[in-house]
Amino acid sequence: MRYMLVRTIVRISRIAALCGFFESALAHHPVQAKFDDSRQLELEGQITAIDWSSPHAHIYINVPQDGGTPVNWAIELADPTELEWSGWQPDTLAPGATIRVSGYEARNGSHQIWAEKVLGPDNTEMFMVPDDLIQQKLANRPSGPTPRWPDGQPRLGPAPGQTGYWTAPGKNSLVEDGVNVAFDKHGMLENINDSSKVAPFQDWAHDLYALRQLNDGKDDPLFLYCIPPGGPRQFQVPYGVQFVEERNRDRIFVLMSGGNGNWRLVYTDGREDVTQVSGNDDNPLFYGRSSALWEGDSLVVNTTGFNEGFWFSNGGLPHTRLLELTEKFTRTDLNTLRYEVTVNDPGAYTRPWTSSWDLQWMPGEELPESYCQDNRQ
Question: Is the peptide bond before 55 cis (omega within 30 degrees of 0)?
């Protein structure tokens, strides 16, 4: 059976005027940066190979053509971690099986499709991931008080002999506390008319933010070049963060599952961070330079020295080299970490502002492996 274009969805154009009114945007699909959800395909073919690697698994199928050589298509699925959590394995289907797929074709015209639905040989839906997957995994956690060191200081990581990490951020993008706007899980606004409410932008910063939103994140440096998720974005990554506390050296390593397994160093005795040989006053860093002190049960971290080569939040809020972050970490109980960040960037915003959310403790597991994929065309 030859592949066919099932339908072309005619959608209202979303045009950004850098100064002026923005059309209401339809809800963003998480894969819109690479795939065009206005062009839906249905394919049927025989599996030739399965690539079960991060950040997205792929199934390759030969799609017959009338009177010609079959065309090999790459069917892109979710991350293998999510697929395995949902009960799927790389050997769920074997090469030679015939499947039917419906989804969105690649924007660059290559033979790739994002799978919205996969039907196996017996017409059973396969390789789908439930929207509430993380919440399902967190549902039966034991509760308890904040774990503490012998001197009473809260632990940001696991207790001795245990494992775990922080995940499921309560916000998917930076937005000033008290502002009620809707985002998808990638920090894309449900309604572009809400863009000016998100933060106290300077005009240029708002225009750039709105343009990035309307472009569906296609110019996100993390998506394009695997640039690290510096700033608050490290606490928005899908598979979480882990704190490794070296109290004998007065420092904490913040390990990230997203990106490429990046990590950040925070000193906890107030000293200035001058040990990073990859950056100096003339060569700012993706994670900046952090100095921290404990204030009661909260770790307060001040960070400066950022470069401008990354997005410091999902959704593309701009920043400049003047960015200064004050982060506050408070473990309120066994399963909850309160994260509060004050953004002070006189180059992009009209005043300092604060955003906060909770992260949830995933007990008994190490950080999942999830790696970035360079998507330059």
Answer: yes
